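Worked problem 6 (solution included).
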Amino acid sequence: MCATCGCGDDGSAVITVVPHHRSHEHEHDHDHDHPHRHDGDAGDHVHGHGPGEHVHLAPTETITLEQKVLAKNDALAQAVRRRLAEQAILAINLTSSPGSGKTTLLERTLRDLAATSIAVIEGDQETMLDGERIRATGRPVVQVNTGAGCHLDAAMMDTALTALAPAPGTLLFIENVGNLVCPALFDLGEHAKVVVISVTEGTDKPLKYPHMFAAASLVLVNKMDLLPYVDFDVERCREYANSIHPGIDVLTVSATTGMGLDRWYEWLFEQTSALLSDLEEGLRRE
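Solution. The predicted structure is:
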């Protein structure tokens, strides 16, 4: 268990390349140590698992451990970012709470952008369900099962990237574990975070989860086809998001009907163009 988010399991995550052929047999051959296992490099670490069990650590100990966890993650994330840049791969970290329609949105995106080279890293605590949904679109995908872990981290990203081996120039989507808290803190080496919310979740999501909206580059408000049937104020949600992250774009979409998706795709192409421009500028300076 780590002090940053409290998640943890037996110290491992399972990373699986989802086969392109139809099969229900999956070989789990890409295991690595989960960085949430702290074996002595961060001082005393006390686990509390039972109901009502209270563990008290001095605040300075907790802060030190959190800093070490995040510093280690950030250093690896920078290495991943350089690796992606060298291959002109645009990596988009999709985050959301469970039930926002994130996977449905991703499926629609993969099918609509048929001419674009796209690969996917799927993050879930358990099951191959989302990985199989992505495989059905014909795109290469790696499934990462985090066990009790509530987010992906840079070590998982690095290992999954090696297993996936996307071609240079690929658009890479990372579908993070459904959670609006910890994924905000853990850099994966991505180009940008995109947070997906839905009109069924409530207008005040940006105020309740400010760190995620502060870290995001774009907000997608999904399930707009259900707006007439729920109590959701789009303009107020936009105001809340901008109060947390001034100037952030908030796009309204429906993955079911296709409403607003053209603007989402335009944003992706703008990010790709910006990445290529940055790379070209870097080469000129060299």
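Discussion: Helices lie at 59-86, 102-112, 129-135, 154-164, 205-208, 210-215, 234-244, 261-285.
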